From TrEMBL, chain A:
SUPFAM superfamilies: Multidrug efflux transporter AcrB transmembrane domain. InterPro entries: SecD, SecD/SecF_arch_bac, SecD_1st, SecD_SecF_C, SecD_SecF_C_bact, SecDF_P1_head. Forms a complex with SecF. Part of the essential Sec protein translocation apparatus which comprises SecA, SecYEG and auxiliary proteins SecDF-YajC and YidC. It comes from Thioclava nitratireducens. This is Protein translocase subunit SecD. Keywords: Cell membrane, Membrane, Protein transport, Translocation, Transmembrane, Transmembrane helix, Transport. It is found in: Cell membrane. Residues 186-243 form the Protein translocase subunit SecDF P1 domain. Residues 259-371 form the SecDF P1 head subdomain domain. Pfam families: SecD_1st, SecD_SecF_C, SecDF_P1_head. Belongs to the SecD/SecF family. SecD subfamily.
Automatic annotation (TrEMBL), chain B:
Part of the Sec protein translocase complex. Interacts with the SecYEG preprotein conducting channel. SecDF uses the proton motive force (PMF) to complete protein translocation after the ATP-dependent function of SecA. It is found in: Cell membrane. Keywords: Cell membrane, Membrane, Protein transport, Translocation, Transmembrane, Transmembrane helix, Transport. Its main location: membrane. It comes from the Bacteria. InterPro entries: SecD/SecF_arch_bac, SecD/SecF_bac, SecD/SecF_CS, SecD_SecF_C, SecD_SecF_C_bact, SecF_bac. The gene is secF. This is Protein-export membrane protein SecF. Residues 121-305 form the Protein export membrane protein SecD/SecF C-terminal domain.
Length: 556, 328
């Protein structure tokens, strides 16, 4: 056991050297970070400023440049946990079905009788037909509008669940379609959140889906969660609707295909609109801040080809009539159509400030969120607090390390030196692995590393104590034999002790959230690396030392 | 001869069962007291588990913080239960005054609204115009409710995983002993949090799980030696084998707890106030965990008794049996 074959020695050394090399960039954190930012900017095709070029030159390209990400608690920044109201989409989908169903059923009015939509829960379409005995026929017609689900998991299932109750047809989305819709809603929401935050231009935000309907957003360097919330929280659902009339009564009774919406800037003014929009913001291909003919801030937009045609036809047929530009259920302006707008571009005016126009353009460009969000959790950590935490963590780690080293050397002499060297390598390996896997170092993560320092020596202590015992038990035992036996006999305790610790760390990681997970990651890596350094690295040191010194008697 | 620091003499022969009744009784009393404390005083649950908002403010001033002024500045906002505490830390500058303000979850909203937060800051500025908000955390009742369950589940899952692992590697009696020690450690740690009303939040759960890992680590080392000695000294009474095993591993236990405590104490003193509670839980847990692996885990195993010879029918003859012991 004491003798380690050459290839094993080489392998251990290679692992240690690779570890040290990959941990090294963390020592030059700011420099490497500046370099990486400049490289990322260059990769995006931006021209580099002289500052960025200097930053890029600050770290050689050929050296590893992965560094540990600093968590928000160390860097400062904002975190939000948003819940997407996926159910809202069902309602919109089902509402959009009604004109289609009405048309199909009305074609058979002769047999079915009158057709009426009844009030129902959101996401449910209840249609009453005049002749109750023809309900089976109505269902048959309805089923012709039912399509198969277009998702992998929903193969063989239909999008709609159509049932009957007396003389009523009840239409809602099938479970398979709901699941598929939820998934699409989440994908779309993630993408839109990402685009909106990217457009605001910050360092690498983290935007991930959590669970079935949540999105976790972390933006390092953001000064407050509010800022991000305002940016992503606005739904920015833009539609262009025909105006039927205006009113001062918000509760005025309107037709079933109409809705009444307030004016954004004129208090007490309400517009009665056709609830089916002519075109929607989803058809926009571009939006940018502009000025109107009077020099006031406005937003210029452009539609895609099909919407441009629809919009062109609509304007041609409705010259002289007003149409409403509706943003998030408010009429932001209702200009009169002056002429046929061909080509699909136009301008939105609405007494904006320059900032409002810029923000609106950004929101329109990024597209509408398919559903609204609730914010379940918000955290903001100021950069100063983060810097204080790093400083405190570094200090504590340094003092802790010195104390542990002194204690180990005082207790085990030369062997304590080996254990301390292994401890240093262990910490370097933790940083190397964290950097390589893109792990995030949090404040509890620093605590995890400090705790690892305390426990990492455990495997060494087990071995050393065992060697001592072997030396005592067999007075005549040769030093080499005692060391061998020490490693051999301590092994089962080392394995059992570390496997159980590993189990709890895995549970911490799987079930933990946020900072707990950060702690679990460093702790898990620490367990793996400490077993490696304790078993192999110290043994390598011991065997090299032994080969040189050949001590007749071992003092431990 | 080189100098060697030896906290534990080379050969010890403590009888760890001598005060069995006293130590075990002490543990039982501690566990019961902890349960009573948690039930009567309750835990000072942080916003992770209760929902609500904490705001950390910082002001540059040399004069002491007037909590009353903060309170009366915020009172008119009608935010319900507001808890204001000053934070002390040896690392702070002399003119750095830090305060945390905890506001209960507001009815009908998940996270605190931007308007409320701005109003709080505005009100505080009447106390000291330089007050800054350096961190805010706002957690809705929905998430906090889920976090409680996740926390309970993770502790239970960790205990179950350890139970199964020890059972597979050793004998069921060992796993019962180990788990009893774990429950002891967790309960006593939670009890301390109830006694001193230290804020109990998600990070404390992480600390509890780490304590589980640490404590079991200690226990397993003792068990491992016990298993080895059971094979070696087939005729020695169980109680003595246990004593021998603890004595043989004592220097290791003291060394490891020592280095871990050194590291934790430097973190406790120098690591900053943000993680102080978390580190406190771990430091306390290491002490309790070390105690429990010496005084709790194996007492339970002794109490249940080990079947050292599964083939033997008559238990009175078991120490004279020549067949293999029932350990692997």
């Amino acid at each position: 056991m004491l003798h380690i074959s050459l290839w094993k020695r080489v392998l251990i050394l290679i692992v240690v050297v690779i570890g040290l090399v990959f941990a090294a960039p963390n020592i030059f954190y700011n420099r490497v970070e500046g370099h990486n930012d400049a490289v990322a900017a260059a990769a995006k095709g931006q021209a580099l400023t002289p500052d960025q070029q200097a930053a890029r030159a600050g770290w050689p390209d050929w050296l590893p440049s992965d560094i540990v990400n600093l968590g928000l608690d160390l860097r400062g920044g904002a975190q939000l946990l948003a819940e997407v109201n996926v159910d809202e989409v069902y309602k919109a989908r089902v509402d959009a079905l009604w004109p289609e169903f009405r048309k199909a059923l009305a074609a058979e009015r002769g047999t079915l009788g009158s057709i009426r939509r009844l009030n129902a829960d959101p996401g449910v379409l209840r249609i009453q037909i005049g002749n109750a005995d023809q309900i089976a026929e109505a269902q048959k017609i309805a089923e012709t509008l039912n399509n198969p689900v277009s998702s992998l998991t929903g193969v063989g299932q239909k999008t709609l669940a159509i049932t009957t109750q007396g003389n009523q047809l009840i239409v809602q989305l099938s479970d398979a379609e709901k699941a598929a819709t939820d998934d699409r809603t989440m994908q779309q929401s993630l993408e839109i959140v990402r685009r909106r935050i990217d457009a605001a231009g910050t360092r690498e935000p983290t935007i991930v889906r959590e669970g079935s309907d949540r999105i976790l957003i972390q933006v390092p360097g953001a000064s407050s969660a509010q800022e991000i919330k305002q940016l992503i929280g606005t739904t920015a659902k833009l539609t262009f609707n025909s105006v039927i009339g205006t009113s001062s009564n918000p509760n005025e009774a309107v037709g079933s295909d109409q809705e009444i919406l307030p004016s954004a800037d004129q208090k007490g003014l309400y517009y009665i609109l056709d609830s089916v929009p002519v075109v929607t913001g989803e058809d926009l291909t571009d939006a940018r801040p502009d000025t109107d003919q009077n020099g006031y801030p406005a937003v210029a937009f452009r539609f895609n080809a099909s919407a441009a045609r629809t919009f062109g036809d609509y304007t041609q047929n409705n010259i002289g009539k007003p149409f409403a530009i509706v943003l998030d259920k408010k009429v932001i302006s209702a200009p009169t159509i002056q002429s046929h707008i061909a080509g699909g571009s136009g301008i939105i005016t609405g007494r904006f400030t320059v900032k409002e126009a810029t923000d609106l353009a950004l929101l329109l460009r990024a597209g509408a969120l398919p559903a609204s969000m609730n914010f379940l959790e918000e955290r903001t950590i100021g950069p100063e607090l983060g810097a204080d935490s790093i400083a405190a963590g570094k200090m504590a780690a340094a003092v802790g390390a010195v104390l542990v080293v002194v204690f180990m050397i005082a207790s085990y002499g030369t062997f304590g030196v080996f254990a301390s060297l292994a401890l240093g390598i262990n910490i370097a390996l933790i940083f190397a692995i964290m950097s390589a896997i893109g792990g995030t170092l949090t404040l509890p993560g620093i605590a995890g590393i400090v705790l690892t320092m305390g426990t990492a020596v455990d495997a060494n202590v087990l071995v050393f104590e065992r060697i001592r015992e072997e030396l005592r038990n067999q007075q005549k035992a040769k030093a080499a034999r005692a060391i061998e036996l020490g490693y051999e006999r301590a092994m089962s305790a080392i394995i059992d002790a570390n496997v159980t610790t590993f189990l709890t760390a895995v549970i911490l990681f799987v079930l933990g959230a946020g900072p707990v997970r950060g702690f679990a990651v460093t702790f898990l890596i620490g367990i793996i690396t400490s077993v490696f350094t304790a078993i192999w690295v110290t043994r390598l040191f011991v065997s090299l030392w032994f080969a040189r010194r050949r001590p007749r008697e071992l003092v431990l | 001869m080189a100098f060697r620091l030896k906290l534990v003499p080379e050969k010890t022969n403590f009888d760890f069962f001598k005060h069995q009744v006293a130590t075990f009784g002490f543990s039982v009393v501690m566990v019961l007291a902890s349960i009573v404390l948690v039930l009567t005083m309750g835990l000072n649950l942080g916003i992770d588990f209760r929902g609500g908002t904490t705001i950390r403010t910082e002001a540059d001033q040399t004069e002491p913080v007037d909590i009353g002024a903060y309170r009366s500045a915020i009172a008119p906002l009608g935010l319900g239960d507001v808890l204001i505490t000053q934070v002390y830390d040896p690392n702070f500058r002399a003119d750095q005054k830090v305060v945390t303000i905890r506001i209960q979850a507001q009815d009908g909203q998940e996270a605190i609204s931007p308007e409320t937060q701005a109003k709080v800051l505005d009100s505080l500025k009447t106390v000291n115009k330089d007050i800054k908000i350096v961190a805010t955390e706002s957690i809705g009742p929905k998430v906090s409710g889920e976090l409680i369950w996740t926390a309970i589940w993770s502790v239970l899952a960790a205990v179950a995983a350890i139970l199964v692992y020890i059972w597979l590697r050793f004998e069921w009696q060992f796993s019962v002993g180990a788990v009893a020690a774990l429950i002891h450690d967790v309960t006593v740690t939670v009890g301390i949090f109830a006694l001193f009303q230290i804020k109990f939040d998600l990070s404390i759960i992480a600390a509890l799980l780490t304590i589980l890992g640490y404590s079991i680590n200690d226990t397993v080392v003792v068990f491992d030696r016990l298993r080895e000695n059971l094979v070696k000294y087939k005729k020695m009474p169980l109680r003595e084998v246990m004593n021998l095993s603890v004595n043989e591993t004592l220097s290791r236990t003291v060394m490891t707890s020592g280095t871990t405590l050194l590291a934790l104490i430097s973190l406790l003193v120098l690591g900053g106030d943000v993680i102080r509670n978390f580190v406190f839980a771990m430091t306390w847990g290491v002490i309790v965990g070390t105690y429990s692996s010496v005084y709790v885990a194996k007492n339970i195993v002794l109490f249940i008794g080990l079947d050292r010879n599964k083939e033997k029918k008559d238990p009175s003859e078991k120490f004279f049996d020549k067949t293999d012991v029932a350990t692997d």
